[in-house]
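If you are new to this repository, start here. Below is one unmodified record pulled from the training split, so you can see the exact layout before writing a loader.
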Amino acid sequence: MQGRAPEPLAAAHWVDEQQCRGCHAGAVKDWQGSHHQLAMQPANPQTVLADFEASPLHNDVETTRFLRKGDEFWVNTPGPDGRPADFKVAYTFGVEPLQQYLVELSGGRLQALGAAWDVEKQAWFHLYPDQGVDHRDPLHWSGAQQNANFMCIECHTTGFERRFDSDSNRFASHWQALGVGCQSCHGPASNHLLWTREPQRADLRNSGLVVNLRDGGNRSEVETCARCHSRRSPLGDGYHAERPLFDDYLPVALGAGLYEVDGKIQDEVFEYGSFTQSRMYAAGVRCSDCHNAHSGALRLSGNAVCTQCHNPAGQAPRVEIRTDKLLAKQYDSPEHHRHPQGSAGAQCTSCHMPGRYYMGNDLRHDHSFSVPNPAQAVALGHGDACLGCHRETEGQQVARQFQDWFGQPAPRDGGFARALQQARTGKTGAAQALYAQLARTDLPALRKAALLAEVPRYPGPAAGQVVATALQHPEAVVRLAAIDVLVAMASPQQQVQALAPLLGDGRRAVRLAATWQLAQLPTELRQGLPRWPAALTEYEQAQRSQLDRAEALTNLAMLYQHTGRPEQVEAHLRLALQRNSHFHPARLLLAQWLEGQGKRNQALQLLQDSSATYPQEASLQHALGLALVRAGQRDTALEALVQAQQLASDNASYAYVLAVALHDAGQQEAAQQLLQQQLANDPANRAVRIALVGYLQAAGQAQEAARLLDELQAVNPYDPLLRTGR
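And here is the target side for that same chain:
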């Protein structure tokens, strides 16, 4: 008699991780005491490292006092209303080099204090010193930008869900366990435990794990780590361990201000973006080749972690790592690094992983594994390991010494950094360099995406094919960049034709981006697209899963405006401002909506009141100026537009609009001067150049206009403008 067939395998769910200890004692031992285990803990005398009997911490605009009440820890600091009050510390965040603290506000909100504890110096410090951060600032600890339910806790717990109820404006956030545990990386373990009891079951192959990080290439492991070790935006509430990264998150691109022009970290972007640009990643190296995945510590000490592969034999410890470009050489010697053995300069990380400090005292190493190039760094203005260590020496001298040691080798990035800098700054030959780089087949995806972002400023016959090819690129980040470029360059009909296939893309982030762009096109162009109803539903659900955020509510309002649901627009914009009163895009859209509904006086009043409340916010002054222009109040409008441009002098759009307003007001010379100044600051700005050429030609200054067109010829000989001269 045959045994009864097993029940169909259910979806995996979270379990108590105490059950992991019996079989995985070694991994658990490594994990105990690690930063992962101690990432978030209840605040008590055993977990709180700070001195809550210390003197008050005075910032430029606020004072925080620390209180100990038995086994409880409190702070007295200005709250959401700006008035000092007592707040109880609920949880600790991290253990070193700093420890932060979460306090609970109404509605289940956990907020990260601006005061943090320096573990090494044993002292309190402020994360935003002398920046005027009070309760009216978006960075204040009580505001939406410091809400840990959305911003932080997911990466400090296991199995976290925000669980926000929009009707009551409350969080009922839930986690399976505090700290980053086994299931954070391997996924819910219920079926794995079932396999331990029924190992013969065919439907439990691969041990019943949702994520098996040992098999296959390095992408699965790197993307698993990237859920937290990247700067990214969530696409929903929580993640699905079995899905690719771009199904649950949208990592940032290599934008200016976030990354150096050569791809090294600049702002706080964590490790994913730099590592996936590296030759290490391309060769198959994964995070756990260098780090013990359970303790987080390096597998070996000092340079030994690098000489696992970079050794005289040119051999890697894993056969999955490509070694075709691995040079057999003695790297851990003065002949290579040119520094005394044992010195800081002799460490591989000093030269190939220069670090930056974030959050006051947290040193993080760049993971692109770059090669120092002080000459290029001086020329392009990016950071460099040699220049960073030898700050007391003039840059050109450092570059000469480097050349004496190592000669003048070709750039290891194949000219990427120089081409990107040319494109961003409008240097001679920018277009040729840009398209030559985009033709490469060996560029890391993030770098190709960064170059694609510059294409709209360099139109020409090759642009269309470049974008069409990028829309079919195997990497999601490139397809996403191509969508943005397509919208800037193609007609609505061309956009529909190109974007319709992406509604069925294999990555959710791409589907959502394509859906949003199509939603903004005329309704008749979308009719008949077979995937459109499902895509629209998916986009709306993604936003509705984040109703705690003003950004998502604003996205919904715009979606409803474009898809024929006007009755929901104003309510969602006003709700966005309730969620975050500092989120100015919602305020600007609300003013536009009111004006479009025939409520011009209400729109003007909103913008005037907002500009008075936030006098340093350039976007409000700019919007007020445009609204006053439409209302026929040109003199007052000009004052607001001038104020906006002065507050954000590097914003080319504000300068462009102000120049048009000045020209229309009869101040032609002032308009030309403003455009000339803006073009000098941003020579790659095509719109500013075109406007200035037109004004100069109209004023009879044909020679100066011709000079600007000659400059454009040198920057982009393919520009269609050159065919007409206008």
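Two things worth knowing about this chain: The mean pLDDT is 94. The CA atoms of residues 369 and 637 lie 51 Å apart.
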